[in-house]
Amino acid sequence: MGRGRGRRGRARWAGALAAAAACAAGGWLIANGTRDTAPPQPSAAQGFTTGPPGAGAATGHPAAPPLPAAEPLRVAVPSLRIDAPLTRLGLAADGSLAPPPEGDRNLAGWYAEGTPPGATGTALIAGHVDTRAGPAVFYRLGALKRGHTVRILRADGRTAVFTVDAVEVYDGRHFPDEKVYGEARRPELRLITCGGGFNRSRQEYLGNVVVFAHLTSSQVGGADSAPLPWARPPADRFSARSAPRTAARSAAPANPAW
Length: 258
Prior knowledge:
mainly beta; 3 helices; 10 strands; globular
């Protein structure tokens, strides 16, 4: 996505990216061949039951005022023991959102040409579910529950606290890009990774797990600014690979299936 393109152009890429995005292989699923190696997937109970994103009805937590734009540095999900640094993500040659490098399994990325987390709009953070070395930063994302929190440490010293409204899984062929990436009037956050089952013949995940959250508070400095001590992926039990691919749309791209 070029910096100078307008909203109409972004909407056009959304459709193109929807077709181009694909979730690459998770080789350890093939190597292990057992169900207990598959990443957790959200149940229907964790999805939207009373309204679409932004309706404010999913968890009943009021939205906090937006924060000034600032670079996000880390993402933490205390209930899943996730605490990871963030890198900037741009677009790949085919126009889809480039995934984070695979060299560090505990690394996630944010779409740097989109909305910074905490500012008004839809911010996107993406991470691998696994790599050739094993489970990666968002391996357990599908286990997140409504009402849980996601914390984003920012370069301005603030920690933006988001409350989860829903966790849903989508087939890559029918990914709802407007629902996931549509522009928001309040600060919202999407976390995304591969999911939706695994196709052994094609060696790829079938879709995506998406977490929907909105800003409910913010904190300045203190202990919440420090990386958490358990910020590491599970011990190497697998040999895996995956290349989640996606795109955001709040000044951004479109549809995935990592």
